[in-house]
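Follow-up to my earlier ticket, as requested here are the two runs.
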Amino acid sequence: MGELANSPEDGREAMPFVAPCRQLGPGAPFVWLKEGWADFRAAPGLSLAYGMFTVLLSWLASFVAFQWGSYWLLLAALSGFVFVAPVLCLGLYAISAQLERGKAPRQRTSFREAGVRRLGAEMVFALILLVIFMVWARAGSMVHVFFPMESNPDLADLATYLGVGSSVGAIFAAITFAASAFSLPMIMHRDVDAVTGVVTSINAVLRNKLAMLVWVLLIIGLLLLALATGFLGLAIVIPVLGYATWHSYLHTIDADVFPRHREGVTATPRPERQEFDI
């Protein structure tokens, strides 16, 4: 399928509002993890640098929570990680893009790709996540009406409170996941706006519910294992998941109709094209 030129108005109005997606089997997430691990092994130094940065952030959040807050503050900070993680992975997408084009990955290039060239779309995406987070916080505060007022509440009352709170949190976490699963990799890969990326991501998630459920369970499982190591496991888990997310986008989203970026790593296609256009 041909690509549109990168001229200012060339075909912009004719482009679709959402990119089509491929149908995925339930085993697809395991392929993404395999490819993510391969990228980690190909760039261990840069990968561990990103991973250790995440570890330090987690330790800092834990210190602040225990020093000036409580376990609930720590839980809130870890919940907020759902919103921060997709943005932190932008540099990892750039590393994968360099590797698949046969280039030696460089930290400087990754920072430039993630923080400068895509800044406008990333800010809009961050604003979307901020709105979701604010609504989530408001909904979370309203959950307190279910908190038992008795000094010795029974188990049923506590179960109701925890059940409602967990359900509300799960709903907003699902919305965040659907919006960010493929949107940021698409913004990195093609010259699209944040809204197109978010709508494309939600559409792909809804059309591949089983595969994405497997993917979510794998992510949760790996993160829990990392937390069990006192956050040290995040040094490996976060880079692998970031690379895997990039490959999940390439396997799922057919973005051929959208133009490439005028400059940067993804301005040129990969030397070897597989059965899907990337």
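Run two:
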Amino acid sequence: MTKKTTKKNQTHTKQEDSGASAGSLAQLTQQPDDGKSGRVGAQLRNSFLTGLIIVGPVGITAYMVYSFVNFIDSWVKPYVPEQYNPETYLPFSIPGLGLIFAIFIIMVIGATTANLFGRSLVSYGESVLDRMPVVRNLYRAIKQIFETVLSQSGNSFQKVGIIEYPRKGLFAIVFVSTETSGEIADLCSEGEPMLSVFLPTTPNPTSGYLLFVPTKDVQILDMSVEEGAKLVISAGLVVPEQKAAELIAENSA
């Protein structure tokens, strides 16, 4: 009985060992397939994301440029005389032709207004606009905006800062325009210097709020205006790198 029981136990153990070996073999044969498919899937996903990062900005930029060129072309081309329009003699259209003519016309107007005759003509035109009740206010506002933005001597939007807004403990990015002056400074400053700052909205920094803030409440940052705009547009995802000197000082501290 003892020998038979021992043989049965040995046989049962061998069957278990063979079953375990078969199970291990099955697992070994399955794991490489699962791992390989997982690696292939990860590689495909990474390749897609990498391509999207490269193609996305290029595609959006190309689309915006193409749309802008088509808009200028559709606006300027109808006013170009046929004898000066190459498309009259060519069997295909030339994209950007209207933009080229627009740039040329603007340069001619700028060169014309540089002399005495041009300045006199512009002054006469502005005097005519000043007699129009609604148009004159619109023209003055637009002209002031263009002169401020395009002036080479202006220092608009050269600094980025943060202020506590909309309440204490919360901070917001602002673009410093200039020092506050005039009636607003006299009424609000109480003898303290103030800054005129633009508080942009996310993700569209072209809209926002004009705020007049005491200079002591504005913390000027080292980042450029372009870096600040990227930070606002990306909703905080694209953070500009700190200056090397600050990193060295932090590491040494």
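The only thing I checked on run two: The radius of gyration is 35 Å. Let me know what else you need.
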